[in-house]
Design a protein that fits this description.
This protein is α/β, with parallel strands linked by helices. The protein contains 30 helices and 27 strands.
């Protein structure tokens, strides 16, 4: 039952017991007495008009919104479209940032006073002003549900992360479906562990075999695929975990591998398997992230090459023994093939568990950062680390540890207050969250901070700086939690778990004491962190703690863009050039502002910096930049591109900061397409050794159902080709005779010239036809004259043209060459062919659309954008009767004017080769990288990775939890 602000629900939220001496004294950090934060900034009105770049339609429009003049266009667009409440065009609609911040901050302040958090009204006012200032200046952000719900008439859900529970009964399984659906409906994600459900190898009380958890996953997957998360078009976000000793673990590991093979086979047979395509819903298990929970016993068996027992769920007895290494290999092979399942390490997770007497940690939220008790939730907030870097512009830098700690105290206080007034999707989650009060403070912009301070992401110095900040953040959070416990009491479950909680605090403090120090920049942060952990141990012994958990590292997708962060969560920078929207409309690419900061820190002069930045603007990389020392290249290594950070570099960063994170870290370790299964095994094994709690890998372009057997691939290809040719014959209803007589084209011949872009590669195609009898020759122009590629294209054009003139039907070429996959591949600038597996795939799809009759190309699964839209509207690709005359004319005269390609985007110093709509697309343009990230459902922009999810920097939509 969903809880509301009813008297019974509110009455269960106990107030603190206030005495004459109780209540927090709130210290000013940024604000000035007698001056409101709004009065210290300049405000301006802007028009927010967001369009879908694919068809130019307006997705969102609100004019005259009021924001500070220093807010970026992207941040204004995202906050206006995502977080303003009220119907657009009505008086109830919020029209400026002041209204939005006031709605939230005043709700928090009022609740803080009501629940006795503040020593005096003056302290409440300082709290209100400081929280306002921090949000106004993008110093931190609450998670998205706070912006959506707080201060509105709807239930005030503040949590983004949920963990559910399911037992081995039909009632519990049906409750799982219902509870998960309610969470999805509210726009959040949930995770759970299915290991309590008995396996398909065990018997029911009736004597028959159980269905097993993998079977029940189908129903939950279908439910998640049906419910639009938060009423939007993106799919629900969910995590499914299974223990490695469950007898059905091999079936669980193989679920998505089999489905990816199915996707490829169906796509090659002509079905619409594009993201959001009509036929993709026939594929199962696509709405969840899967993870295998491995324990130390299993990992030790892998290390020693011994057997491992799979245990019955009801009795715990071993019912089957398997080779641990072979099972670990299957896990890595599945991750190599389709990126699922990820891995969670049960031993380290529960070793750092503050509440073991109340239950084990068995699962996580969808993005794997929140890990705590079943049927609980966590509200998040993230700090913008770049706001604490003091830089005089001459290479002298320091991290303001004192101010950072004060902001952490402010934010933790606000986060804890929110649990007092928050609503929850189920009664069980509400009761448990109030009893354990889990919080998840974290940060964003770490990658930008490291680069700006001259640290390589994969370096001892970079890891040490990140670790010191993380230790200070979590130590300060627990210190404030202990201070709150003295005022409003410890969490309800503390008494039962006091010894375990204090043990974990000592583990954090001990890790801080032995952590390496490398330079002046991090030494001062370590000193502040050491002092904070000493206070944690002292105050915790005296007062207990208000919160069972304090910190996590979330993806910070939408909120990272709202804070104008260059990097999300713990991630490194995507690339050295960024796509930037301009206030007056249009866009341009710029070199990251962190690059000049880093160069100054490294000792370069302004003239050198200018030359290096100009080189990066033109080439997108630092390699061969004039005057840049090769030993400094690593400082500018990014997640993508020529000098991308190694997979193990990502794991080492996670391991460096994990000892000071209460929960875990949302992160996907990106690997190149050439990565091997052995490399994935190494990453999964070394992450266990290093003490990481959870991770997932993503091998580029693995989400195409690549088979594990080359022989199987060839057999399937031959079978699919045979079926396609049968379909073509049925469609054209005639026998085609091949005669060795060449029919040459006349001197004057009609033709179409098409410019195209496939995965960043540009080219031109001229298709000439007989005056009365279809296509007769093709000319392809790519690359410079005399190059190997140009020569091969010429030879290919001649071969196809001669074949056409000797009577080879175009449909035969189309059936043979479409779906052929090689680089470059990816997005095109053709609205009818949005994605292409290769240049050849695009060419013959375009020729089919221009020259083949509807019935023939429809049998091959090739349709125009208009036809696909018609199918969505009417259920049929066939044109309506009134459209037949127009369509017949178009087919009989295939020489209609081709739209001119879009104009290039303005570049800082150079012209972009084509239009980009996000930094992810800009990286592909600059570096020729083909990233197989999905397109945003809302605006069509290519998304980019944010932790374990994807984020659209065009409109702020995410593919997972906000």
């Amino acid at each position: 039952m969903t809880e509301t602000a009813s008297g019974s629900a509110r009455g269960s939220r106990n107030k603190g017991t206030k005495t004459a001496k109780s209540g927090l004294r709130i210290e000013r950090i940024h604000t000035t007495p007698g001056v409101h934060p709004y009065d210290e900034v300049s405000w301006e009105r802007r028009d927010v008009v967001m369009t879908n770049w694919r068809d130019g339609s307006v997705n969102f429009e609100q004019r005259g919104v009021e924001f500070p003049d220093f807010w970026s266009v992207n941040a204004v667009n995202i906050v206006t479209s995502k977080y303003f409440r009220g119907a657009v065009g009505t008086p109830q609609r919020e029209t400026g940032l002041k209204q939005l911040i006031d709605r939230i901050v005043k709700t928090y302040t009022k609740a803080g006073e009501e629940y006795d958090y503040f020593a005096s009204p003056a302290d409440a006012e300082i709290f209100e002003h400081e929280l306002t200032y921090a949000l106004l200046h993008q110093i931190f952000s609450f998670n998205s549900p706070v912006w959506f719900n707080v201060g509105t008439p709807q239930p005030q859900q503040v949590s983004a992360c949920f963990i559910l529970a399911v037992d081995d009964s039909m009632e519990s399984i049906l409750d799982w479906y219902k509870e998960e659906g309610m969470i999805f409906k509210g726009g959040s994600g949930a995770g759970l562990n299915l290991s309590r459900i008995r396996s398909s190898k065990e018997l029911l009380s009736s004597g028959g075999n159980a269905s097993g958890p993998v079977s029940f996953m189908r129903g939950a997957d279908a439910s998640a695929g049906t419910i639009k998360s938060g009423g939007a078009t993106r799919r629900a976000a969910k995590m499914v975990v299974l223990d490695v000793d469950h007898p059905d673990v091999e079936d669980f590991i193989a679920t998505k591998v089999k489905e990816e093979e199915k996707i490829r086979a169906l796509r090659d047979a002509g079905f619409d398997m594009d993201l959001g395509g009509d036929d993709i819903t026939s594929v199962q298990y696509q709405n969840a992230n899967n993870s295998v929970r491995v324990n130390d016993e299993f990992m030790t068996a892998v290390e020693n090459g011994t057997e491992f027992g799979l245990r019955a769920r009801m009795t715990g007895e071993v019912i089957e023994k398997v080779d641990a290494k072979a099972l670990f290999r299957k896990l890595a092979e599945a991750a190599w093939a389709c990126a699922d399942p990820g891995i969670q390490y049960d031993g380290v997770i529960n070793n750092w568990h503050t509440c073991p007497e109340s239950g084990r940690i068995t699962a996580s939220n969808p993005c794997s950062e929140y890990m705590h008790l079943d049927n609980t939730s966590c509200n998040l907030a993230s700090l913008n680390l770049m706001k604490f870097l003091n830089d005089d512009g001459k290479g002298n830098q320091s991290f303001d540890a004192e101010r950072f700690a004060k902001v952490v105290e402010l934010v933790i206080t606000a986060m804890d207050i929110s649990i007092c007034f928050a609503d929850f999707p189920t009664q069980k989650i509400g009761e448990n969250t109030r009893a354990f009060r889990q919080l998840g403070i974290g940060y964003a912009n770490l990658g930008a901070l490291l680069m700006a301070t001259g640290h390589a992401y994969d370096s001892d110095g970079g890891r040490t700086l990140a670790a010191s900040i993380t230790s200070l953040m979590t130590g300060t959070a627990y210190k404030r939690s202990a201070e709150l416990a003295a005022i409003v009491g410890p969490y309800d479950g503390y008494a039962r778990n006091a010894e375990a909680h204090k043990r974990v605090m000592k583990q954090h403090a001990d890790a801080n004491a032995v952590a390496p120090r490398t330079e002046d920049l991090d030494n001062s942060i370590w000193a502040a962190a050491t002092e904070a952990w000493q206070d944690v141990l002292r105050l915790g012994e005296k007062n207990g703690f208000r919160n069972s958990q304090a910190s996590v590292l979330a993806p910070t997708g939408t909120i990272g863009l709202a804070m104008s962060c260059d990097t999300t969560g713990v991630e490194p920078d995507l690339a050295l050039v960024k796509f930037k929207k301009l206030v007056g409309g249009g866009s341009m690419q710029i070199v990251n502002g962190t690059v000049p900061q880093a160069l100054r820190r490294l000792g370069y002069q302004e003239e050198q910096i200018e030359a290096i930045v100009a080189h990066i603007a033109e080439h997108g990389v630092v390699v061969d930049a004039p005057g840049l020392k090769t030993e400094h290249y690593e400082v500018f290594d990014c997640a993508m591109g020529e000098r991308s950070i190694s997979a193990m570099g990502h794991v080492r960063m996670m391991a460096a900061i994990q000892p000071w994170i209460s929960g875990a870290i949302s992160k996907t370790v990106n690997m190149p397409e050439t990565a091997t299964v052995e490399e994935i095994e190494e990453i999964y094994f070394e992450a266990w050794k290093m003490g990481v709690k959870a991770l997932a890998i993503y091998r580029d372009n693995c989400k195409v159902g690549q088979p594990l057997s080359a022989k199987k691939k060839e057999e399937e290809k031959e079978e699919v080709t045979a079926k396609a040719e049968d379909t073509i014959r049925a469609a054209v209803e005639k026998v085609i005779e091949y005669r060795p007589v060449r029919k040459r084209l006349p001197k004057g011949r009609p033709g179409i010239t098409t410019s195209f872009t496939v995965g960043g590669a540009e080219g031109y195609m001229t298709a000439n036809s007989y005056p009365d009898d279809g296509l007769g020759e093709v000319f392809l122009k790519m690359s410079k004259q005399g190059s190997t590629l140009a020569g091969m294209m010429d030879a290919f054009s001649i071969a196809v043209s001669v074949g056409l003139q000797y009577g080879v039907p175009l449909e035969t070429y189309v059936s043979k060459f479409t779906n052929m996959r090689f680089e470059p591949a990816g997005m095109t600038d053709d609205p009818d062919v949005r994605m292409a597996q290769s240049i050849v795939d695009y060419i013959f799809r375009r020729l089919a659309l221009d020259f083949l009759p509807f019935e023939t190309r429809s049998a091959l699964g090739i349709h125009t954008a208009e036809e696909r839209q018609r199918h969505l509207d009417t259920g049929s690709y066939e044109p309506l009767e009134e459209d037949l005359d127009t369509e017949s004319l178009a087919q009989s005269a295939p020489l209609a004017a081709v739209p001119a390609p879009p104009k290039p985007v303005a570049v800082a110093g150079v012209q972009a080769p084509k239009t980009a709509h996000s930094s992810a697309e800009l990286v592909e343009m600059q570096l020729g990288v083909s990233a197989d990230a999905p397109l945003c459902f809302s605006c069509g922009t290519k998304m980019q990775r944010a932790g374990s999810c994807y984020i659209c920097e065009g409109c702020g939509s995410t593919s997972g939890c906000s």
